[in-house]
What does this fold into?
Amino acid sequence: MRILGRGRIKTVLVTGGAGYIGSHICVELLDAGLEVLVIDNLSNSSQEALNRVEKITGKTVLFYQINLQDKARVKTVFETHTIDAVIHLAGLKSVGDSCRLPLEYYQNNISSTLVLLEMLEQFSVRNIVFSSSATVYGDPATVPVTEQFPLRATNPYGRTKLMIEEILRDVANASHIKVVLLRYFNPIGAHESGLIGEAPNGTPNNLLPYISQVAMGQRDKVLIFGGDYPTIDGTGVRDYIHVVDLAKGHTKALQEIVGNGSKGESCQVYNLGTGHGHSVIEVIKAFEQACGHKIIYEIVDRRSGDVAECYANPALANEKLNWRAEKELSEMVMDAWHWQTQNPKGYKID
Ligand code: UD1
It folds into this structure.
């Protein structure tokens, strides 16, 4: 792989690497021949995910269970290893919780990023890829959404993403640190091995884990939030992207910032989506095909803060990163179902 061949990047730190998206990123990095360090406080993730990453790749992940706000302990990681790039995912991510506990969200997500950036400066780490979200577009006026669309978050969680984007832009302008902001659309699915996947604590907030649990008989029915949107069938439309495709976008982003040397822009922004929208009912129908039986649903009131339609224009990432989402919805739900049946309780063993 180019980033390795050139010898520019050897070791990557993944914050939040034990989580759903982070664990899939670790697999891609290890498969690319990179050394991977993970800092994760396991507040919404499991170390078992990293054991599984090692099983999939046959390689080792160096894991530190540290709260990213704990500067002294984070510093020891930077002192112990020569880190060439950071992929920053660690953060709280529930929209509902963020409305109830805004201070906790600002404190956790912002201050941990500040600690991390201070370490980057102190230890001359020049590359950072940030896990941002399509949530920064708020309610987009039209679809598909390009990176130039106006930014407007509608809840504290989304605002932390926006604020961190702005902090990173300032740091990129003022230093030699190169930044890539990746705006994820709706990652779903799981690794094809069925060994790693999404394992939410408690009642899932997002659609796919909820459908999976209904399909398993763990919950009675899917509640569809709104059937009167101006969409193909009245239900919300989103750009669902296979988590493995999303993870591959990160290795491409690293290749881009490192490969471009000083010629590249100091802060680049990319949408990571497929460019296609699917309604809630389309996703449920696709899942029925994968699991082989009916999934009961009921249409209820809209969820506050939801938008009718949101899907990406991923042309910039296609062109500049030479990256493209390849997997179809049928493969996403098949892999989600495979993971769910292999791991009915997520990573819990009892
Ligand atoms: C949600 C967050 C977004 C966050 C993203 C992370 C909200 C309002 N938005 O996006 O900020 O970045 O997750 O993954 O929470 N749906 C149902 N029933 C359910 C769950 C969802 O009908 O039980 C519908 C929603 O109305 C939406 C679609 O399914 O139309 C997708 O919902 P979800 O998976 O929660 O993702 P987003 O709302 O797009």
